[in-house]
Amino acid sequence: MASSSAEIIAFLLGISGWVLVSSTLPTDYWKVSSIDGTVITTATFWANLWKTCVTDSTGVSNCKDFPSMLALDGYIQACRGLMIAAVCLGFFGSVFALVGMKCTKVGGSDQMKSKIACLAGMIFILCGLSALTGCSLYAHRITSEFFDPTYIAQKYELGAALFIGWAGASLCIIGGSIFCFSIAENNKTPRMGYGYNRAASMISSPTKVYDGSPDSKMPKSPPKHFDKNAYV
């Protein structure tokens, strides 16, 4: 029961992390910067993996998609690949987790289901590591440009999408670790068995006494001894 509960918790953590990681791809605010006036914010610059935009004080946004994938910076291409790989790994990890959980009817024997659950845990861990690497690589580029005194272009700060990606990656890694530890717990669980006691299973038979004559083969009952209270 404890193992099944742990698998359910791990599945919920993995699914939640995968949903958060998937939601970072279309999220706008990977990096954000604003130009403040004396009273209101005059313009807000923000960008993600697919486009860069600017929003004025009236709320009107003007966006520009990146023109060519081959002309992009290397870190954006790497982040795209890592995040897409994380989404795909999370999908396959969810499928294997459903098959490997004890509360489902598919997957074969308990030993096979434990191996499938462990495989799902490893996939979830890879999903979390891919998302964590992609978000950290993007954040490192933002912070290095922000603190570089020789960088004269527009400087950005960390956007909300990065924090969502880090949270989702952490949940995937935690859920995958629980799945991997579940196979060790299943191997340590003793199996219920029934011992066979030969001495206790033998049926006692009445004692048979043979007389001393060699041609006599009929057993005789042993002499009965009665206590004196038997005649009362």
TrEMBL record:
Residues 207-232 are annotated as: Disordered. It is a multi-pass membrane protein. The keyword Nucleus does not apply. It holds the Pfam family PMP22_Claudin. One of its GO terms (molecular function) is structural molecule activity. This is Claudin. Belongs to the claudin family.
